Input
Amino acid sequence: MRTAVAVTLPADWRDFFALTKPRVMSLVIFTGLCGLLAAPGTINPVIGFTAVLCIALGAGGAAALNQWWEADLDAGMKRTASRPLPAGRLARGDALSFGIILSVLSVMVMGLGVHWLAAGLLALSIFYYAVIYTIWLKPRTPQNIVIGGGAGAFPPMIGWVAVTGEITLMPVLLFAIIFFWTPPHFWALALFVKSDYAKVGIPMLPVVAGERATRHQILLYALVLLPVSIAPWLAGGAGAFYGGAALVLSLAFLALSLRVGLRVQAEGDAMRPEKRLFGFSIVYLFALFAALVADRLASAQGLVQGTVA
Output
């Protein structure tokens, strides 16, 4: 790790908030909440809120630790140069302390207030992202996002376990969906910012293997994602509404990935296919997990009406 970035400007709460990567955190919170709402059984609303809050705090802590470690790398990339640490608005030591406090607090509150198995999974996800991905994998292998993608796949599993207290097939399938979604999502981004990664020596797949290999890998993972996304329905853990939504969304994801793989740009469309795929991939995950919750709520409503009848 290189020398710390000098602090030249005073920090405020917005800089600490930026350390948590709020845009990324919104997806983490949403999938964690969906895992909680889709799980069988019930949970006290206060305990459920506590579980989601802990997921958010843990994600924010891991993000802060990631930026603490990568401050000098971020300074060398146009996309991240304005972050609080490389911009000199925040001391590196403060970011480290902030990340540790959020991480420890989130795990302890989850364990004491919700469930220790959920707390263990949360601790594992923080360690996975901050250490296994950020420190070990990212600077060493172009498969960093494939293996490291597991870190972002934990939230729905944690939400599910917060309700049920056990790991069954369904939370594992939800984990698998995000695990296989992450590489095409992130590589689509990496295709149009690869010069940044090349400049700071991060071996992202487009930098090491080239654009052609990356495009083929995106298409391959999109093909795998299709059956994985409908697996909860096929396994009986979700109903036909989710199954239909997952099929339609994943076919659209595959179609956009095919354009990326074949470098096909629609006539009159100024946006590069990888940018369109990256944008859709975020909508895809939100919509897929929203469909899972809607399916669960519809099923629960049907059971209630059947009982009343």
The two ends are 66 Å apart (CA to CA).
